[in-house]
Amino acid sequence: MPKLPNPVDYAVPFFILLIVIEMIWAKRQAPEKYEPRDTLVSLGFGLGSTVAGLIFGGAIYGLMLWLWDHRAVTVPWTWWAWIACFVLDDLLYYLFHRSAHRVRWFWASHVNHHSSQHYNLSTALRQTWTGWLALSFLFKLPLAAVGFHPAMILFCSGVNLIYQFWIHTEAIKRFPRWFEAVMNTPSHHRVHHATNPRYLDSNYAGVFIVWDRMFGTFVPEVDEEPIRYGIVRQLGTFNLLYSVFHEWIGIAKDVWQAPWRHKLSYLWRPPGWTHDGSRDTSDTIRARWHARRMAEPAE
Q1: What is the pLDDT at residue 204?
Q2: What is the pLDDT of residue 153?
Q3: pLDDT of residue 4
Q4: What does pTM read for this prediction?
Q5: In angstroms, what is the C-alpha Rg of the chain?
Q6: CB 117 within 8 A of CB 236
Q7: What share of the chain is helix, strand, coil (3-state, %, to 5)?
Q8: What is the DSSP letter of 77?
Q9: Which class for 70: exposed (0-12), middle (13-18), buried (19 or more C-beta within 10 A)?
Q10: Where are the beta strands (DSSP E) in the chain?
């Protein structure tokens, strides 16, 4: 099998160029879109994530190779295999992403990406340092077990990540209807980053928004309701280390303080869940919002 480069390494200069272009646009059109301290934190996330990948990436690749050595079939190195790998990898990304919002152990890692109250291209750099601890790599393993070579899988995952970079912007409003129907776009992904009750836990797609449409998690952007970004309980700080580890700290505190019969629930139940109902989950927030809408008199 040929050795494949990491496509993200080659995309980094273009990421930086696009961020600079967007910053120039924002300075002229909407200066509030960029906040210097917030952008620095995002850059810190990106750097730390790269270092974590270098440290743990080899072990994960080794596990994938072991599974591939025990594969069910051998998927050939052909054009249709590349297409199949890319589409299946994107489906598995959807499943991972949905789980990352519904299981607190996964969320503790993924929350890093949602922690900014701004939405711009630098936000895309807010990648986790602790994906290995949250076991996010587990969602890559089925493809290797089936018979796709790990090099092919990781290359497709890299292209998927590159695609997701450019959709973190408010500079682009809408694409033609056919494109919005099939592909993930800035409009769809703005919804995903929103804290508005109508938008919570929706639009998990990486590249193809069709997964959300198929599995009932798609919510369109509504022009008359401005989007509020970040997380339900905002960080309130630009401290990088706290931003990275705050949810892990929260889990540790909750597990320590919880009655024995509830301790594991603080790991696998949704973010915000408590055994006494003292905090909200996205489900309870959305249910209250829906109830208020139903109670409003019709115009």
Answers
A1: 98
A2: 96
A3: 84
A4: 0.94
A5: 20
A6: no
A7: 65, 0, 35
A8: S
A9: exposed
A10: none
DSSP 208: B
Locate 13 and state its tokens.
């200069």
d(CA 240, CA 244): 6
Which residues fall within 8 angstroms of residue 99, CB to CB, at 6 or more apart? Answer: 106, 139
Question: What's the average pLDDT block by block, 10 residues per block, for the chain (299 residues)?
Answer: 81 94 91 92 95 92 95 95 98 97 97 96 96 91 96 96 97 96 98 97 97 98 93 94 97 97 97 95 94 78
Q: What values do phi and psi take at 230, rounded to 5?
A: 115, -145
Predicted local confidence at residue 2, as pLDDT: 64
* Count of CB atoms situated within 10 Å of the CB of 102: 18
Determine contact, residues 91/139, Cβ cutoff 8 Å.
no
Write the DSSP symbol of residue 263: T
User: How far, CA to CA in Å, does 95 sit from each of 20, 85, 212?
Assistant: 33, 15, 10
Residue type, position 172, single letter: I
Task: List, as one string, the DSSP characters of 15-55.
Answer: HHHHHHHHHHHHHHH-GGG--HHHHHHHHHHHHHHHHHHHH
Phi-psi sector, 148: left (phi>0), alpha (psi -120 to 50), beta: beta
Other Cβ atoms less than 10 A from the Cβ of 261: the count is 8
Both structure tokens of 230 = 């970040």
